[in-house]
Design brief:
The protein has about 300 residues and is of the alpha/beta class. It folds into two domains: about 5-130, Glutathione S-transferase Yfyf (Class Pi), Chain A, domain 2; about 145-295, Rossmann fold, CATH 3.40.50.11810. About 45% of the residues lie in helices and about 10% in strands. The protein has 13 helices and eight strands. It has helices spanning about 20-30, 55-75, 85-100, 100-115, 130-135, 140-145, 180-185, 205-210, 210-225, 235-245, 245-255, 265-270, 290-295; strands at about 5-10, 35-40, 80, 125, 155, 190, 230-235, 260-265. β5 (about 155), α7 (about 180-185) and β6 (about 190) form a beta-alpha-beta unit. α1 crosses α12. The chain is globular, with a radius of gyration of 19 Å.
């Protein structure tokens, strides 16, 4: 049975943006699972960064409130779903803050009224992995596999924002297992002793103080190699970029020889569901996920 949700794509998912291959693979995965994602019309940036860069709380919260209001107006009764952890976190935080601050809600409503919108805050805000786990289930995900990812050893790198402060219901903040279970449902081998599942990659610090971020990424990659993994899987566009795009810089700084593919869980799933490498967004990798490409080509 088809399931429908209101979808918040987020900035990084747009064509030629840093996470566009995530959106390509999300579309392919949802197609295989008979999930319909209805984009929020005229959506805007969630404001994930501006509040922490001096923009203030109200503008940041009002941006997400506008997305929620548009979602509720266009698709009443549907859950709002995001594939980007930062977008999910910002949107969910906005709903929580607006529910607990009369002043903030009044000010946000006044801002939205200028655009003819009203915030109700009735829709649930969920990450796509929540939908897959809670509404489809691990067995449901596994039932759609046509090309099992046998022989691929995966380290599940969840990162910060997909795990704290909200995370997945029932999961440990320190040792979340859901990406391991999703990998195993696709036929891959999850490295159970991977030690850096929830360590921060440094986020946007990589642009202002790259040496600090890259020191963190070095530990994340080193732990993946130590666990026996040959591929890193993540739900986050920032985590994906930091752990893949800067491996050469880290190698030059530390004398390492990292060359590990870093893919989105949705890319892994799309291949297992019989999609081509292009449909899974694998053609946009900096470090080619050759084993996934080989399976996709079968």
């Amino acid at each position: 049975m088809s399931k429908s949700y209101t979808f918040y794509p987020g900035c990084s998912s747009q064509d030629k943006a840093s996470g566009s291959n995530q959106q390509i693979s999300v579309a392919a995965t949802c197609d295989a699972l008979d999930i319909t994602l209805n984009d929020i019309p005229d959506w805007n940036c969630c404001g994930a960064s501006i509040g922490y860069a001096g923009g203030g709380e109200l503008p940041r919260i009002a941006l997400s409130a506008r997305n929620i209001a548009l979602a509720e107006q266009s698709n009443p009764g549907q859950d709002i779903v995001a594939s980007c952890p930062a977008c999910w976190l910002a949107t969910r935080e906005a709903k929580e803050r607006l529910a607990h601050s009369d002043t903030l809600r009044t000010d946000a409503q006044a801002a939205l009224a200028e655009g003819g919108l009203e915030y109700k805050g009735e829709a649930n805000v969920r990450h796509l992995t929540e939908v897959l786990i809670e509404d489809i289930g691990y067995e449901g995900m596994a039932s759609k596999v046509v090309k099992p990812l046998e022989g691929i050893k995966v380290a599940s790198y969840v990162g910060c924002q997909a795990n704290r402060p909200y995370g997945i219901t029932g999961e440990s903040f320190e040792n979340p297992l859901y990406l391991d279970k999703m990998s195993e449902a696709m036929g891959a081998e999850a490295m159970s002793d991977y030690q850096k599942k929830s360590q921060c990659c440094g986020g946007a610090l990589n642009f202002s103080e790259p040496e600090k971020s890259q020191a963190l990424v070095k530990d994340i990659l080193e732990a993946a190699y130590d666990s026996g993994a040959e591929m890193l899987v993540t739900p986050c566009a920032m985590c994906q970029m930091n752990t893949e795009a800067f491996q050469d810089d880290i190698n030059k700084t530390y004398g390492t020889n990292f060359n590990m593919p870093v893919v989105y869980y949705s890319q892994m799933m799309a291949v297992a569901y019989g999609k081509s490498a292009k449909e899974a967004g694998l053609d946009q990798q900096i470090i080619r996920a050759s084993k996934l490409e080989e399976i996709a080509a079968k």
